[in-house]
Specification:
By secondary structure, this protein is α/β, with parallel strands linked by helices. The chain has helices at residues 37-47, 51-56, 111-125, 145-148, 152-171, 185-193, 279-290, and strands spanning 60-65, 71-76, 84-89, 131-137, 176-182, 200-206, 224-228, 260-261.
């Protein structure tokens, strides 16, 4: 992650989420996650459109960095009181420019929009749930298919994700955390899961290209591992191989991987898992809230 020349807030347990703040901001003042929001809002206003508009509407970000392809971590819900937390990790081609509008202007591909749908569905299922969802563009995904064949971006992303997870665990030790990786984001999730704190109870992959291991039980501990893979998803045509520097092994959606299946009937293509009305969206929200998918899978 790129933080050269950027002021960083100190977070609980000093576990190092990089947060963009105005020059001269006092890092000691940030004793909790919520204290990041004014600093990131100021940085967004300084960056101009469209980011100033995001801040003006009261959206809350732990991380914002407009340089290069950009970084952003948006929070939906009240992270200070949440006892159920989801972190959604996008895949290939995701940049700050497309964080809100979606890759190619396709709204269902937008990390911010996907996180909003998960949060809204969880609240629909249980309006009283204390739940927060993070749209986590905290790494630089590959820009295309060639880059996605390797794991370099995923390894960097996993290291940054672990920083976040350890900070969340220190800040909300009684909360359970669900990781949701889409496409190449599933590899980031898989590489982080083996070292993740015990608060990470569920690992969800949607159209996952791989997680770095060939069996769900290799992700460690008693974590529940879930996979959604639609019949119409082109990810099924990607060769399941792993050689040095190329490929990510068995897809988590392959039954031989051993993940708990998520319903995906009627899901269109690679990017339709978290659209309103999708059975996968409802199942993911159920896992977040209860550790059980719709239909009773545990």
């Amino acid at each position: 992650m790129r933080f050269r020349g950027v002021t960083r807030f100190a977070l609980p347990a000093l576990l190092g989420i990089g947060l963009v703040a105005p020059a001269g901001a006092d890092p000691v003042a940030a004793a909790a996650f919520v204290e990041a929001y004014p600093g990131t809002a100021a940085a967004m206003r300084a960056a101009g459109a469209p980011y100033a508009g995001w801040a003006a509407t009261g959206r809350r970000f732990l991380t914002f960095d407009p340089r290069g392809d950009g970084l952003a971590v948006e929070v939906l819900g009240d992270l200070a009181t949440a006892d159920r937390i989801a972190v959604l990790i996008p895949g290939v081609g995701s940049t700050l420019r497309d964080f809100d509008r979606g890759l190619g202007g396709v709204a269902r591909r937008a990390p911010a929009g996907q996180a909003r749908q998960v949060h809204a569905e969880a609240r629909r299922i249980d309006p009283d749930a204390r739940v927060a969802v993070l749209a986590w563009l905290g790494y630089n995904p590959p820009g295309g298919v060639i880059g996605a064949a390797g794991a370099a971006s995923a390894r960097q992303g996993a290291a940054a994700l672990l920083d976040l997870l350890r900070a969340l665990a220190a800040h909300r030790p009684a909360a359970s955390i669900t990781l949701i990786g889409h496409s190449y984001g599933s590899l980031v999730v898989g590489l982080a899961a083996a070292q993740a704190p015990a608060q990470v109870t569920d690992v969800v992959t949607l159209g996952g290209i791989g997680v770095g291991v060939d069996r769900a039980d290799a992700l460690g501990g008693t974590r529940r591992v879930w996979a959604g893979e639609a019949d119409t998803d082109w990810i099924r045509r990607v060769p399941q191989l792993r050689v040095p520097g190329l490929g990510h092994g068995r897809r988590p959606g392959d039954p031989a991987f051993g993940a708990r299946p998520l319903p995906a009937a009627g899901v269109a293509g690679h990017d339709g898992y978290l659209v309103p009305g999708s059975p996968t969206l409802t199942a993911v929200a159920s896992v977040l809230l209860t550790g059980v998918s719709v239909g009773g899978s545990r």
